[in-house]
Every structure is written in structure tokens, then in C-alpha cells.
Amino acid sequence: MPSRTETDASDDERPRDPAESKSLLERLPDPTNLALLGLLGLPAVFSSRFAVLSPFLYCFLFGLWPFVSLFLPTRGESPTEWIRTGDRWSTARFLLSMVPLQLNPYVQAQSVGQLLGHLDVYRRYRFDLPGPESFEQRATYRLPVEGEWTVVGGGHERDDSHSWSILAQRYAYDHVVTDDEGRTHAGEGSDPSDYHCWERPVVAPAAGVVVAASDGHRDAPRTRGWLDLRQRDIRGNYVVVEHASEEYSVLAHLREGSVAVREGDRVDSGQRIGLCGHSGNSTEPHLHFHVQDSPSFYRGMGLPVGFDGVAVADGPNGEPVPVERAALRAGQRVVQQKSEQSERPAETE
Q1: 3-state DSSP call for residue 132?
Q2: Residue 80: partners with Cβ closer than 8 Å, 6 or more residues away
Q3: 79, 148, 257, 283 - which has most CB atoms within 10 Å?
Q4: Residue 286 burial by CB count (10 A; 0-12/13-18/19+): exposed, middle or buried?
Q5: Of 212, 274, 275, which is closest to residue 248 (Cα–Cα)?
Q6: SS3 for 324?
Q7: Of 82-96, 143-157, 272-286, 322-336, where does mean pLDDT reach its minimum?
Q8: DSSP state letters, 226-258
Q9: H/E element holding 292?
């Protein structure tokens, strides 16, 4: 959700010591995961014999941690400070719409499903979750878009993370398109079509096989921080592609009616799979992208992949500089460079 301002990464740009990055503090569950302890209190709801377990019900309040973190002080200036995703009231609209959204059974079911899925992730990895120092990607990834885009959220470090609390989305990215003034839209930005990324092509980040594709979810009618209270899936319209063993990309919030692939289709790197939209849990048109180790939306663990053949610029100024492989972070402008692989004609419908 691009209306959220991400916290800044450390000013120390030296390479991290792997031992330091695997400290006990970083291996402990995120505060949001402590909400799982609330499950221990559920027997007390159904029988007074288990009243002694009722205090565990308060642990469900840890599920509010992502919203509490919005008000915590940041460490210095945010790298996304220059990106203008809305007006000063956008965050207020987001928080206001979150209240009635709690009554949406689809959203609540998916939220609980993701939280329960963390149990399987921690079991599989024995709490030693994959990170930038330990993970070795198998597939070669390009950007899932064409032209210049801006990373409004995401990165490999905890302070840059799109959603550190949600394990599948720990290394996810939100992409938007900005103009020379850092604005993501023209005019007032009150309509999805005002946004620069609206209906831009979304392409496969690597060759693979489509394992899931969903279309037919409406694009939210409002923007500027408002969430769609009638959403049926927080991903909106989405595509999941298997690229290698235990490497699956997820591309979400696609334009309704634009998904151009179906389950079982083989796709080439750079092949069009849809258009950027505003469906699902979205505050304004943008593309959500991440790679996880499972096709399951609930039991996947996010993976910190790098992108090959891209040009990167930190902040709003300067031309993007080509790099061989980039680990992107919030606040960067990125462009996929032309190559033999990316010059293949994209298939549409």
C-alpha cells in the first residue's frame, strides 16, 4: 500500500557481518507473530473449565502491531520522502478505512490464514529464516515492468521492508511511477486513471509456469489512501508463476480484465501477463511483487532475490546507473535494461 511512509535504512552503508545479521534478536518472531498465542485462549471462550487460559486472548492485540508501528519515530530521513503518493490526509484515510475493513470476512480470513501459515514457515526453517546472506536464488530475475518505475516500499533490510511482519511478503516490493516532481499521479489523483502507472504492462520476471491466476476482482473506485471495503481478496487480481524449485513470484493488484495468462501456461521472461491496476488491498494504483518458496499464499516464505540487467538511481535526481545484479530498496528509481532476453516480443492475449 504505497500511502505508507517507510522507515529509513541505517546510514552505515558498509557490508553487514553475517554473524551480526543472524543475531538472536533478528531470529526471534516479529511482535505480530505473538498474536498466535491468542489461539491458546480460545478454549476459554467455549468453556469456563478453561478460564485459566483466557489471559492468552489478549495476545491477539499483537496483531495490531503493524498499525502501531506507523506512529513510531523513524531513524533519520526516509529514503521515500521525495515520493508524493498523496496529500497529508492520506494516512488518516488509510487508518479510517482500516476500522470498517475489520468487518470484511474475506480480509479477516486471509489475515488469520497468513498468521497461521507462519507456524509452518517457522517449523520448516526451525526459526532460521532465509536472508540476504544465506539465500542463493536459482532463477534469473528481471524487473516485472518496462520503463522507469519507483520502488515506494520494500528492500532486503528490516528497516526497508514492505511488510516484515508478514513472512511471505518480508522481501516484497511496491512499484509506482513518479514524475519529475515525485508525484505518482496527475491532477488531484482522485481517480485510478490519474495515476502514472495505471494500465502499464506487467511482465513475467523470469521464465516459468503459471500456477495460479485470478481475474474478475474490481478495481477500487477510490484512491488517496482509501481502501476498498468490498474487496474479496487482498491480492486483488493476481498471477503466481513458478520459476524454479521453491521459487514462485507473486504479482498482485492487477487491472480487472487484464490478466492474460491462465494456470498451466508457460511464460517467457518479459512476457506480458497483465496490466497495473488498483484491485484488492490497495490505497492507489501500484504493482505488488515478491518471490516466495511456496505457491501457497499462506505458507510461503519471502525470498530476497536480486534483479539482473537493471539501472538504479537513489532518489529523484540523476540518471539510473546500470548494475549487473541489484537488490532494490525503497526510494530507488529503476529501469530494466535492454537485452537479448528482454527484447523478445511480449505476448498479450
Answers
A1: coil
A2: 5, 6, 152, 153, 330, 331
A3: 283
A4: buried
A5: 212
A6: strand
A7: 82-96
A8: ---TT-S-TT-EEEEEEEETTEEEEEEEEPTT-
A9: strand 287-292
User: What are 119's three cell numbers?
Assistant: 507456524
Kindly report the pTM of this predicted structure.
0.82
Neighbours of 83 (CB within 10 A): 24
Of 71, 34, 5, 8, nearest to 165 (Cα)? Answer: 34
What 19-28 contacts at long range (C-beta under 8 Å, 24+ apart), as own/partner pairs, is 21/131, 21/132, 21/133, 22/128, 22/131, 22/133, 26/158, 27/127, 27/128, 27/129
Q: Give the residue among 265, 239, 260 at the shortest CA–CA distance from 250.
A: 239
| pLDDT tens by residue, 113-140 | 998 999 999 999 999 999 999 999 999 9
The DSSP 8-state label assigned to residue 7 in this structure reads P
Mean pLDDT of 96-111: 89
Structural domains in the chain, sorted by start: 148-336 (2.70.70.10)
Spatial distance between the Cα atoms of 175 and 150, rounded to a whole number of angstroms: 6
Whether 217 contacts 279, CB under 8 Å: yes
pLDDT 10s digits, 208-242: 999 999 999 999 999 999 999 999 999 999 999 99
Angle 271-237-143 from CA coordinates, rounded to 5°? 35
